[in-house]
C-alpha cells in the first residue's frame, strides 16, 4: 500500500473539486483559463486537507524509528502474533516495536509533494488569479486589450507591495544586527503570508463555529424555515426588479450606440461583439430597428470612443449575468417555498403519503424515486425523521465547536496537555493505532475547513462577490474564492498541527517535524510572531463566537440599512408578509399554467388516436377503387353544401355601421357582444 493511498486521495480530491466547479461555474460559457485556474486552486487546497493526515502518521512512524535508534528494516517487521503487545510500552532500554502504517508514504516523496503544492498555490493566489480576475472583468474587445487592462490594474496593486518589500530589504541589508540568508528571507515571506491568512481565518472560523450548528438546529424548525423563506423571497424580488431595471437601462444605451454607429463604421465590430452578449429578445428588437442603408459620415454627429464602448461592454456583461442569476435564484426559491408549504399541508395527512402541489415539476426521474424514495418514504422523512436528524446533527456539531474553541485557547499548554485533540492523538500514538489517528485528524481538519469554507461560500459583498449555485457564479467570484482558499488553507493546516502538538515551534517539544512544517520553515526567525501572534491571536475566537451567538453583526448591518432576518422586528415582519403574498401570487400563476398543461395533455390523449385513425382512413380512401372514390367525392360535396347552408343562415356583422356600436351596452339586436373598436381600421392595432 506504499504510495497507493496518496494516489487514491489525489484522484478523489480532483473529482470533488471538479464537481463543485460544475455546480457553481458554467463550463459552456466561461473562459477556459478561468475554469482551469479555479479548478487548480480548489484542487490544491482540498489536496492539502486530505493529505495532511498521511503526513501525521508517517511522522509518528519515523519518530518511533528515531527513538529506537535501530536500522529501519528491524522496525518494519510486523507479525500478527505480537500485535496484541503493541499497546504495552517497553521498559527502559528495550526498543519499541514500530509498526508501519498502511498509508505510509516513502521518504522523500512528501517534502517534494508539499513544495510543489504550496508554491503552486502561492503562485495562483498572488499572481495568476488576480491577473485572471482583471482579465475576466475587462470589457476589452480583443485578447491584447484585455491583457493590457489586466497588467495596468495589477501593476498598481502589486507595485505597492513591491515598494514595501524593497524598503524592508534595504533596511535589513543596511542594519548590522541583521544577517539574513536566502532561507531566512523565504521564511519571512511565508510567515507574512500565513499571518495574513491566519488573521482572516480566525474571523471566518469564529463565525462558522456558531452559525453552522445553529443553522442546522433552525432548519429542524419548519415554521422558522418557512418564515425565513418568505423573507428571502421579498428581498430577492427587490433584487430581481433592480436587475431587470438595470438591464433595461444598459440595453437602452446599447440601442442608442447601435443606431449611431452604422454598418460601415470602423467601430461597428465592437458593437456587434456587444450585441452578441445581449439577451436574444433585445437582439431581435435592435436588429428590427436597425437601418443599414445609411452610410457612415465623418462630418456628422460625434461618435462614441472605443474607451466608452469598452466600459459599455463591461456593463453589459455584468447586467446580463446579474439578470440571469436573479431569475434562476427566483425559480429555485419558489420551488423551495412551495415544497415547505407542501410539507406543512402533509403533516396533518392521515394517509401518510406525501403529495405535491405540482406533481409534474416535483417528481424526479429515475429508479430511486420509483422504488426507494416512494411517497410513503418521503412523508416519513419530511414530516417525522428530518427534524430529529437535523437536531441530532446540530448537537454533534455544537460539541465539536466547543472542543475546537477550548483547544484553540489551550493548545499552547504542553504540561499538562489541555488541548482535547492533542490528547486524542497522543493516546492513539501510544497504541500506534494509525487508522484512528488518520480518522481523528481527518474529521478535525474537515470540520475546521467546513466552518471556514462554508462561510466563504455564504458571504456576499454588495453583489461584487457572490457564489451562486446552479451555474450562476460569475468568473470574478469563482477566482476570488480560489484566491481565498489558497490564502486560508496553509495557515489553517499550521493551526491544526499546533492544536494537536505536532508543531514544535509552538509546542516547544523535541520531536521530528512533519514534512509540511519543514516546507514552512522555522518561525523562530520572527520570534514575536511565533511566540506571540500565532499563540494568542486564536483566542479571539471566543469573542467572535459570542458576537455571532448574539447576532451582533446582523444587528449592525440592520442598523446600517441592510435588511437582515431579525425574527421579532417590524421591518422583518413587513418583508415576511410581502414575501408570503408574492409566493401566493406565484402559486396561482403556476397553478393556472399547470391546469392548462393538464388540459392540453388530456386533449392529446383523448383525440390523438382519433386523428391518427382519420389520417389512416384518408390514405385508405385514396388507394381504393374508382367507385369508392366517386362515392367519397359525392359525400364530400354533400358536406360542403351543408356547411355552406349553415354559413348562409348566420347574419353577417357590418363593422362600418356606427349606430349599433354607439349603444350603451354595445349589443346588437341578437343580444351578442360586438367589438369595442370604434372603427374597422383599429381592429388589429394591438397585433
What this model shows, in words?
With 687 residues, this protein is mainly α. The protein has helices at residues 4-24, 32-68, 72-75, 109-137, 143-174, 182-219, 222-260, 268-277, 280-288, 306-346, 359-362, 367-372, 375-410, 420-431, 434-458, 475-499, 504-507, 515-520, 527-536, 540-549, 552-559, 570-623, 626-649; strands at 460-461, 465-466. The protein is 70% helix and 1% strand. The longest helix is centred in the C-terminal third of the chain and has 54 residues, at 570-623. Residues 70-93, 625-638 and 641-687 have low confidence and may be disordered.
Summarize the structure in short.
With about 675 residues, the protein is an all-alpha fold.
β content, as a range? under 5%
Order of helices and strands: HHHHHHHHHHHHHHHEEHHHHHHHH
Estimate the mean pLDDT confidence: 79
Largest pleated sheet: 2 strands, antiparallel
Structural class: mainly alpha
Question: Rough shape?
Answer: globular
- First CA to last CA: what distance? 75 Å
Annotation, overall tally of beta strands: 2
Widest β-sheet, arrangement of strands: 1-2
Which runs of at least 5 residues are low in confidence (pLDDT < 50)? 70-93, 625-638, 641-687
Number of helical segments?
23
* Cα-based radius of gyration, to the nearest Å: 35 Å
> Helical proportion?
over 70%
Give the helix/strand layout.
Layout: H1 4-24, H2 32-68, H3 72-75, H4 109-137, H5 143-174, H6 182-219, H7 222-260, H8 268-277, H9 280-288, H10 306-346, H11 359-362, H12 367-372, H13 375-410, H14 420-431, H15 434-458, E1 460-461, E2 465-466, H16 475-499, H17 504-507, H18 515-520, H19 527-536, H20 540-549, H21 552-559, H22 570-623, H23 626-649
Antiparallel strand pairs: 1-2
Amino acid at each position: 500500500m506504499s504510495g497507493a493511498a496518496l494516489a487514491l486521495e489525489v484522484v478523489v480530491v480532483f473529482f470533488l473539486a471538479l464537481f463543485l466547479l460544475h455546480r457553481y461555474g458554467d463550463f459552456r460559457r466561461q473562459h477556459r483559463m478561468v475554469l482551469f485556474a479555479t479548478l487548480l486552486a480548489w484542487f490544491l487546497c482540498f489536496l492539502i486537507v486530505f493529505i495532511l493526515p498521511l503526513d501525521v502518521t508517517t511522522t509518528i512512524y519515523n519518530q518511533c524509528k528515531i527513538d529506537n535508534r535501530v536500522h529501519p528494516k528491524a522496525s518494519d517487521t510486523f507479525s500478527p502474533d505480537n500485535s496484541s503487545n503493541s499497546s504495552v510500552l517497553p521498559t527502559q532500554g528495550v526498543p519499541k516495536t514500530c509498526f508501519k502504517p498502511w498509508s505510509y508514504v516513502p521518504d522523500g516523496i512528501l517534502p517534494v509533494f508539499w513544495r510543489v503544492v504550496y508554491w503552486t498555490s502561492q503562485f495562483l493566489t498572488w499572481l495568476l488569479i488576480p491577473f485572471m480576475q482583471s482579465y475576466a472583468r475587462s470589457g476589452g474587445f480583443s485578447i491584447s486589450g484585455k491583457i493590457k487592462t489586466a497588467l495596468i490594474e495589477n501593476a498598481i496593486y502589486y507595485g505597492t507591495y513591491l515598494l514595501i518589500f524593497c524598503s524592508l530589504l534595504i533596511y535589513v541589508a543596511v542594519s548590522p544586527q541583521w544577517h539574513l540568508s536566502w532561507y531566512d528571507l523565504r521564511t519571512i515571506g511565508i510567515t507574512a503570508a500565513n499571518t495574513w491568512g491566519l488573521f482572516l481565518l480566525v474571523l471566518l472560523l469564529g463565525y462558522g463555529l456558531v452559525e453552522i450548528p445553529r443553522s442546522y438546529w433552525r432548519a429542524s424548525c419548519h415554521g422558522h424555515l418557512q418564515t425565513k423563506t418568505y423573507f428571502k423571497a421579498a428581498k430577492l424580488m427587490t433584487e430581481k426588479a433592480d436587475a431587470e431595471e438595470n438591464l433595461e437601462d444598459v440595453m437602452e444605451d446599447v440601442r442608442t450606440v447601435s443606431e449611431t454607429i452604422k454598418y460601415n463604421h470602423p467601430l461597428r465590430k465592437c458593437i456587434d461583439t456587444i450585441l452578441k452578449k445581449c439577451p436574444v429578445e433585445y437582439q431581435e428588437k435592435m436588429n428590427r430597428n436597425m437601418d443599414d442603408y445609411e452610410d457612415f459620415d465623418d462630418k456628422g454627429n460625434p461618435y462614441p470612443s472605443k474607451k466608452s464602448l469598452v466600459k459599455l461592454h463591461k456593463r453589459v456583461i455584468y447586467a446580463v449575468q446579474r439578470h440571469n442569476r436573479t431569475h434562476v435564484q427566483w425559480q429555485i426559491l419558489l420551488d423551495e417555498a412551495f415544497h415547505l408549504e407542501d410539507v406543512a399541508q402533509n403533516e396533518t395527512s392521515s394517509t401518510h403519503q406525501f403529495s405535491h402541489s405540482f406533481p409534474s415539476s416535483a417528481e424526479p426521474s429515475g429508479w430511486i424515486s420509483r422504488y426507494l424514495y416512494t411517497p410513503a418514504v418521503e412523508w416519513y422523512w419530511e414530516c417525522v425523521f428530518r427534524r430529529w436528524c437535523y437536531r441530532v446533527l446540530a448537537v454533534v456539531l455544537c460539541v465539536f465547536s466547543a472542543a475546537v474553541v477550548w483547544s484553540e485557547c489551550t493548545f499552547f499548554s504542553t504540561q499538562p496537555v489541555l488541548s482535547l485533540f492533542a490528547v486524542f492523538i497522543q493516546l492513539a500514538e501510544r497504541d500506534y493505532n494509525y487508522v484512528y489517528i488518520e480518522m481523528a485528524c481527518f474529521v478535525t481538519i474537515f470540520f475546521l475547513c467546513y466552518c471556514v469554507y462554508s462561510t466563504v461560500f455564504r458571504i456576499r459583498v454588495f453583489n461584487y462577490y457572490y457564489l451562486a449555485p446552479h451555474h450562476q457564479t460569475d468568473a470574478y467570484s469563482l477566482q476570488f474564492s480560489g484566491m481565498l482558499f489558497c490564502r486560508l488553507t496553509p495557515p489553517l493546516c499550521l493551526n491544526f498541527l499546533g492544536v494537536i502538538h505536532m508543531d514544535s515551534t509552538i509546542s516547544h517539544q523535541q520531536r521530528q517535524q512533519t514534512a509540511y512544517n519543514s516546507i514552512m520553515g522555522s518561525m523562530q526567525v520572527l520570534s514575536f510572531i511565533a511566540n506571540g501572534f500565532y499563540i494568542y491571536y486564536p483566542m479571539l475566537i471566543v469573542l467572535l463566537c459570542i458576537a455571532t451567538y448574539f447576532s451582533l453583526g446582523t444587528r449592525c448591518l440592520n442598523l446600517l440599512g441592510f435588511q437582515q432576518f431579525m425574527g421579532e422586528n417590524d421591518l422583518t415582519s413587513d418583508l415576511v408578509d410581502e414575501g408570503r403574498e408574492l409566493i401566493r401570487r406565484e402559486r396561482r400563476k403556476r397553478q393556472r399554467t399547470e391546469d392548462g398543461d393538464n388540459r392540453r395533455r388530456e386533449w392529446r390523449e383523448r383525440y390523438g388516436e382519433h386523428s391518427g385513425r382519420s389520417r389512416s382512413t384518408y390514405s385508405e380512401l385514396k388507394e381504393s377503387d374508382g367507385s369508392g372514390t366517386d362515392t367519397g367525392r359525392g359525400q364530400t360535396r354533400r358536406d360542403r353544401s351543408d356547411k355552406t347552408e349553415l354559413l348562409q343562415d348566420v347574419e353577417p356583422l357590418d363593422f362600418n355601421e356606427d349606430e349599433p356600436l354607439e349603444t350603451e351596452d354595445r349589443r346588437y339586436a341578437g343580444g351578442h357582444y360586438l367589438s369595442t373598436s370604434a372603427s374597422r381600421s383599429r381592429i388589429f392595432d394591438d397585433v
